[in-house]
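Job type: complex structure
Entries:
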Amino acid sequence: MPYTTVLSVLHGDAFPDVTSSPAETTDVERSVSPITCHQIHVIATFDKGRLSLTKTDNMCQRGSVPLLWFFMQAALVLVSCFTDIETGPGAVVSTQPNGDRFKIEGRAIVPGVKTQDWVSTARVLVEGEEYVGFLRTDGSFAVNDIPSGSYVVEVVTPTYRFEPVRVDITSKGKMRARLVNYIKTSEVIRQPYPLQIRASGPHSYFMKRETWGWTDFLMNPMVMMMVLPLLIIVLLPKVVNTNDPEMRKEMEQSMNMLNPNPELPDVSELMTKLFSGSKGSSKASSSSKGSRPAAKRR
Amino acid sequence: MAKLILLLLKLCILFFVVHAVFEDQVGKFDWRQQYVGKVRFSHFDTQMQSSKKVLVATESNVFAALNTRTGELLWRHADKTGPEGNIDALLHHAQDAVLVVGNGRMLRSWDVNIGGMNWEILLDSGSFRSACLVGQQGTVKHVAVLKKTVISVHYLSNGHQKWIENLPESEIVDYQTVYSGGNGQVFVLGIVPHSHITIVVYSMEDGEIIKQVSVEAPWLSNIPVSCVVVDQGMLMCVDSTTMSINTLDLHQQQLQMTQIPLQSLGLEVDPDFHPYLVSHQPNPAQKPLSEFFLQLGPERFLLLQLNNGQIVTLRDFKPALLASFATTGEKTVAAVMSPKNKTACSINLFSADTGRRLLDTTLIFTVDPNGGKPERLHVQAFLKKDDSVGYRVMVQTEDHAVTFIQQPGRVMWTREEALSDVVTMEMVDLPLTGTQAELEGEFGKKADGLMSMVLKRLSSQLIMLQAWIAHLWKLFYDARQPRNQVKNDISIENLSRDEFNLQKMMVMVTSSGKLFGIDSKTGGILWKRYLDNVPSNAAFKLMVQRTTAHFPHPPQCTLLIKDKDTGLATLHVFNPIFGRRSQVTPPALPQPILQSLMLPLMDQDYAKVLLLVDDQYKVSAFPSTKNVLQQLQETASSIFFFLVDSSRGRLSGYRLRMDLSTEQVWEVVIPTEVQKIVSVKGKRPNEHVHSQGRVMGDRSVLYK
């Protein structure tokens, strides 16, 4: 439940750059007279360890300025006592040598492999090599002697790959495990604590050699250009029933589309007419006309 | 960390430029060697008859198990580098190995068969003094850890603390050793130097102080160095000032130590030598042996026995370099290494309770002249079928090398642990073959004339033809020989460049002062050389002064070893292909050296010039022949260098003058209150710049 406290701040004192012209206020309190009410109230909420301040311009009081000032001071003191600022990722609070030391516990599992096979080559690294732990024979580990702060814990083996986990330790010893996100460092996707880390498979150090497969032959463009049309020509008539008169009609229609229209002038004849002149064409037409009556007389 | 301890030296070298590594190429062009570091503690795993492991804990914070048959690493665990991961003590019992790490920060128990940890607990703060296994009625179930102000006893099975007690008067008394004889009591021995010994006896059950005794001992200053516990709780301390052995029965209430002068045994101590005692407790749940070694001189050991309060000399070993006990089953033997001649030592076994030499137990160990002297001896003893004792021995030498030897002297394996800390290296081309040298002969000389060039070409081709026929004949001859007679080893004698100059000689300099020449194709060590008198915090710089490209002159490498504290330096000049010291004598350097600089100027015999700047800002050149000095005088005005004094924040630039002195040209002061110079990086001295080259008409190459 958010703990709320109200800070009322006098305009011009604490936030000098905040103006409260009635035109900017929301539709909350229009009835307030603009001359006297220049007080901005700031609501401080403490929720889930974060302190957020929101500005509201509602209330308006007159004449109780010193009391309000006192209240604000008191509230500020109260708020600072309850704030628990999250340490940013990577900020290690290690300046007190006499501070409490904690330990990070967890268990690492490689599915399908007995622990004693891989445990002798494994180490647990907390924040790089700053704190080193080792795995027990059953795959569990505990890294001792760690001050409070935020750390990236990873299990390192030459054979298997484990995902790193971020662990935050508060100064009182509360542990919280979450996913590692270097970009959005304050994102919290909780992981179980004590840590349970599963191997996500063996390391892949090598590139696979290119192998032969049946797709190499079929996906070759040359083959596709030859084989597919062959298939179309050979198989398509078999699929289509050519004895059907309707099918025949359709096929003939599509064939007719391919034939040139005799009404349309032939382009090549046009060109020869253009370039050879009228004599040649008349000769040609007369010779053609001559040949026809000759054929007809017979 | 700039100083890469890197206990793991992994070298993967890919010869071919590949765009990726495929799994079937692994191992063809690369090799890898793993090291652990200088051995600090070692225990043989004698759990089973056929046990094949030796556990080692090293100076480089590594705890590892080695296979005794092949010397290969079974597993290893590297802790943090630095004093926080330092291994203070190694205790071994059955399948568990207990380590105290980080000056008493943590107690860990490892399962030696699997290589995984059993448990780890954080100990209370306090600097570490000693630890021991506590046994009771024949079984060992607890481990006691003694710190500066507390003693704690933990269960061996899970590490939980059984009890922890403050040591009485720990501000005055310096508690140094803890001992348990297997009767349910834990003895803590402390000392006020040159005043008295305090013995506190704790009960193992609940940590109650059973007894607390103070005994006067004004001559004693350090317990672990001078005293051991022998037999049923008898403390024996050797005192060099009064030449006597003082004994004290820990179980009785003695007020004074009994003094037994060494003269009564007919012995005298070598002057200027601190005598040293060695005892042996094979089973922590039982009392130690009543026999012990006393070292009276650098080459003199005595096997003594404590018999009813009297010391009896069983055997006098003179000369003897190292001595050690070993137990197998019920028998205990003493192994003593004595020098035989200049190059070999012999190790013999003696029965511990009688001092008689056991027959057929001589083992010859050849001391490598290029290695260090033997430093420690670890013996693995076992019972043979006829109930006699056989043994194998692991010898640790000064140059961090570990050798495992079997009777009668056959070396099973050697581990060069100096390679775990390589400081610098250079890759040196191998010498040219005859035919390649012939080919090179055509270039470089100015053209004499057409006929001479033709004749030269014809003659070199004839020589190459001859060499090729000889090579074919040799191949044919080898093919006809039976397989096992053809030797295929790479030996240093027939090393020469291969066709593309890919196989090179890797010259490695390690921080212990040992030089290695490693073949880059197979990773085998071709030559090694241990330099004496290398200070422990030395800085090394390796420079190739002459490569193998100039035939009649041998290749030459120079190693500059500088002591960081005093600044004094020595030069070691050697041939990188064979590892032998070069004929050229380096100059003596009486002044501390500030900087060294290698110039591309070459001497008449093609050796590059090395300039050394001493703290008087005077320069000395290494091949200081007339030719070199003349060249330097000509080019002196264009030789500049800068010096950095980071403690005062001063950077200064100097120029060389013709008489090899220097004058300051510029100076920049960065006040140390404002900023501190942390590191200075110049051009890497072993940087090879490969520039594009273009072949000109007269066969010379113009580099960009």
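Summary: DSSP finds seven helices and 13 strands in chain A. The longest strand of chain A covers residues 39-47.
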